[in-house]
Write a sequence for this structure.
C-alpha cells in the first residue's frame, strides 16, 4: 500500500528536511516515528526539500508499507511519536502511480518579513527582518521581470543539484499587513536557495539601493555574483505542492491563518 501524508513543521531546530548522519533533520524524525508506529523501517520521499531553518506548512510525502490501518490511525499514531514541532495533518491511501514529487504540477512558498527598527523577538525564527522601509511598487515592478520561464542561474546556489536552471514562475504576489510583508511564490519548481536569493534582490530594491529594472539585469547575467546576498531562511515557508484534482489530496493549510 502507498500512503501519502501532509506534514507541517517548525524548522528552527532542524538541519533542513533531508536525512543526515546527525539525525537532526525533519526526515530523520519523521522516519523514526513511522518506524515506531509501523514496527518496521520506513523510507519516505518528499515533494520538496527545505533548508535548515525553513518551515513547512504542507510538505507532502509518500511511502510504501504492508501495514493496513485506517487513515485517521496513521495520523494519530505517527504524531504520538513525533516531537511537538512536527505534526502529520492528514493521510491518504494513493495509487502506486502517485509520486509526491513527480506528480506535482507546481510548488508554493510564502516569505514573511517584519519591517521594524527593532529585531524580532516573539517572532524570532519565524520571520525575516528589515529595519529600513520597503517600497511596494518598486518590488512589484522588479518581481514582474521574473515571471514566466527563464534561466535562473543568477539565483541558484553553487550546491544546487537540479539538472537544469530553467524554471517557470507563475506568481509573485506581495502584500503588506501593518509592519509585516507577505510574499507568495508559485512555480513549476525551484532551485536550491532560489527564493532566498530572489528575496535578497527584492529587499535590496525595496530599500532603494537598486532600481527595479536591476532585477532584469541580474536575471540576464546568469551569474550568482550578479545578485544580492542570500536572504535569511527564518521567514520562508514551504506551502506545499499542487496536484491535479484526480489524486484527491487536500490543498489548503487552514491551521496557519495566523500568518500575516
Amino acid at each position: 500500500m502507498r500512503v501519502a501524508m501532509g506534514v507541517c513543521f517548525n524548522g528552527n531546530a532542524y538541519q533542513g528536511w533531508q536525512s543526515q548522519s546527525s539525525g537532526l533533520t525533519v526526515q530523520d524524525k519523521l522516519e523514526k516515528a513511522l518506524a515506531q508506529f509501523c514496527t518496521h523501517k520506513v523510507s519516505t520521499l518528499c515533494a520538496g526539500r527545505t533548508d535548515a531553518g525553513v518551515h513547512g506548512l504542507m510538505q507532502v510525502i509518500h511511502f510504501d508499507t504492508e501495514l493496513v490501518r485506517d487513515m485517521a490511525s496513521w495520523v494519530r499514531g505517527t504524531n504520538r511519536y513525533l516531537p511537538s514541532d512536527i505534526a502529520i495533518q492528514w493521510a491518504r491511501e494513493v495509487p502506486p502511480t502517485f509520486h509526491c514529487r513527480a506528480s506535482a504540477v507546481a510548488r508554493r512558498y510564502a516569505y514573511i518579513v517584519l519591517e521594524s527598527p527593532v529585531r524580532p523577538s516573539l517572532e524570532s525564527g519565524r520571520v525575516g527582518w528589515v529595519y529600513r522601509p520597503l517600497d511596494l511598487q518598486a518590488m512589484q515592478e522588479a518581481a514582474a521581470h521574473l515571471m514566466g520561464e527563464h534561466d535562473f542561474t543568477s539565483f541558484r546556489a553553487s550546491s544546487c543539484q537540479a539538472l537544469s536552471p530553467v524554471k517557470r514562475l507563475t506568481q509573485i504576489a506581495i502584500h503588506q499587513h501593518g509592519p509585516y510583508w507577505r510574499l507568495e511564490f508559485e512555480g513549476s519548481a525551484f532551485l536550491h536557495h532560489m527564493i532566498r536569493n530572489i528575496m535578497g534582490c527584492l529587499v535590496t530594491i525595496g530599500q532603494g539601493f537598486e532600481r527595479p529594472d536591476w532585477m532584469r539585469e541580474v536575471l540576464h547575467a546568469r551569474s550568482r555574483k550578479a545578485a544580492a546576498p542570500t536572504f535569511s531562511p527564518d521567514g520562508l515557508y514551504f506551502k506545499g505542492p499542487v496536484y491535479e484534482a484526480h489524486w484527491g489530496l487536500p490543498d489548503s493549510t487552514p491551521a496557519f491563518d495566523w500568518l500575516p
